[in-house]
Amino acid sequence: MKTIEIDDDLYFYIASQTKFIGESASDILRRLVMPEAQASAPVAEAPATAPQAAKTKTKKAESKPVPAVNGKGAKIVLASLESNPNKSKVEVFLEILAALHQAHGASFAAILGIKGRNRLYFADSKDELLKAGSSTNPKQIPGSDYWVVTNNNTAKKISMLKEVVSTLGYNDEQGQGIIAHFAD
Q: Whole-model pTM?
């Protein structure tokens, strides 16, 4: 097996084409690039559990396991999140939310129901968050139409991420794996 370096955007695209948890990058590329080989190739079975760490590498980061969501076959692409000590917690927080949005598409809208006792955490617009409270520092979740308050301490951001992954259907173990990208 050979290892190649690819740009992050290309890796995101390949990972987004995953049909089942544990499908290798080679299988995905084979399916996309050589569809005629697909008809003669045996169909790989989806594994029952999440795989060990993937072997595909990007220029910046090694792949992380891709968790399943309660057997629904949904996936999340966190593999391109790099461990960069120069990134702010807000940047990492937004990257995780963006990856979750990319993985869940329209069902990501369920996060709009996540609220604090006295605070709105997510909204469809910056203005909605600004009207809901002072000192919210709203930021748009990259690649989405959703906004999130970012003027919270790290513990509150972790709590928010826990609610997000739970709302999206991840079990505790899978949620902890996702949150670990932020809590490092």
A: 0.59
CATH of region 1-80, choose from 3.40.640.10, 1.10.1220.10, 3.40.250.10, 3.40.190.10: 1.10.1220.10
Distance of alpha carbon 183 from alpha carbon 124, whole angstroms: 26
3-state DSSP: the chain helix, strand, coil percent, rounded to 5?
A: 45, 5, 50
Asked which of 52-56, 124-128, 133-137 is least confident by mean pLDDT, the reply is: 52-56
Looking at residue 84, its pLDDT comes to 61
Give residues with Cβ within 8 angstroms of 61, minimum separation 6: 79, 80, 81, 82, 83
Chain center to CA of 100? 3
Which pLDDT tens digit goes with each residue over 69-83?
433 333 444 554 555
